[in-house]
Amino acid sequence: ETTGIGGETGAEEILVRTRDLCRRHGFEAIKLKGGVLPPMEELEALEAIAREFPKYPLRWDPNAAWSVETSIRIANQLMWRHIDLEYLEDPTSSLEGMSQVRQAVPIPLATNMCLVNWEQLAPGIRMHSVDVILSDLHFWGGFQQNRKMIAVAEAFNLGIGMHSDRELGVSTAAMLHFAAATPYLAHAIDSHYHDQLDDVITRPFVYDKGCMKVPDGPGLGVELDRDKVEKYHRLYRQDGAVNEFYDPRRPDWTPALPVF
Question: Is 224 exposed, middle or buried (0-12, 13-18, 19+ CB in 10 A)?
Fold first, then answer.
């Protein structure tokens, strides 16, 4: 598993949190979840992490918050500072924007934002917009659709990782089964599980030296805690959906949310 770090107030705070998570859970791959602070401030945090964890694969995900120009400028800073990223994930938006960045800098680009369905797969490959596709059992439509996508990626020598979207235990179990059954998935999979306070399965997952055990037993190998399901269903009915994109520093600014 790779741990996601981000949302803190500065480089030192991010480094302290990184130390704590790696010590407690044994992570050996680190991803900085960015696009929150000014790019140069996040770069300082990443540089501090790289100094302290020189042998760990590092990833940086600005969530497509940067322009093409900023993406190229910051990527050049990474090279000048000798920060060797496993990949830079979604620095900018759209297949075209990612392609322009990739043409300008020799840093692998990953995505789970600009290439998430079949219609985007062929143009993304033709434009060399990404080097690593982050699979997602939900975005791509289940096990078989992900297997088909990965077969195409392997044919075109694209890397494969796995995206995490704060899934609960059932989806976590599905991800673990799929990752364990996919030898071509060579990058450590993403997880937000360390920030999760509760779960709806009877035996929540635990990290062991930065890894999760693939569950055994019938089906996905997990059992629902019906009382927890009812509890959180009741809370959802009471409070409704929360806007995860709310920014307390800009309380009057609310992005439009997609409707599915």
Answer: middle
Q: What is the mean pLDDT of each run of 10 residues along the chain (260 residues)?
A: 61 94 96 94 96 96 97 98 97 97 98 95 97 96 96 98 94 98 96 94 96 95 97 90 72 58
Contact yes or no for 222/203 (Cβ under 8 A):
yes
Distance, CA of 239 to CA of 242 (rounded, Å)? 8
DSSP-derived pairing of the beta strands 2-6 and 190-191: parallel
Q: Which of 33, 192, 228, 233 is catalytic?
A: 33
Helix (H) or strand (E) holding 4: strand 2-6
Candidates 170, 144, 149, 173; CA nearest to 161 is 149
**Which candidate, 103, 63, 109, places its Cα nearest to that of 245?**
63
User: Is 163 an active-site residue?
Assistant: yes
Helix ranges (DSSP H) in the chain: 11-25, 39-52, 68-80, 95-104, 118-126, 143-155, 169-180, 226-239
End-to-end CA distance of the chain: 29
Q: Is 231 among the catalytic positions? A: no
Q: How far is CA 186 from the centre of its chain?
A: 15
Question: What's the pTM value of the predicted model, to 2 decimals?
Answer: 0.89
Q: Considering 163, 177, 213, 231, which one is annotated as catalytic?
A: 163
CA angle (207, 209, 211) in 5-degree steps:
50
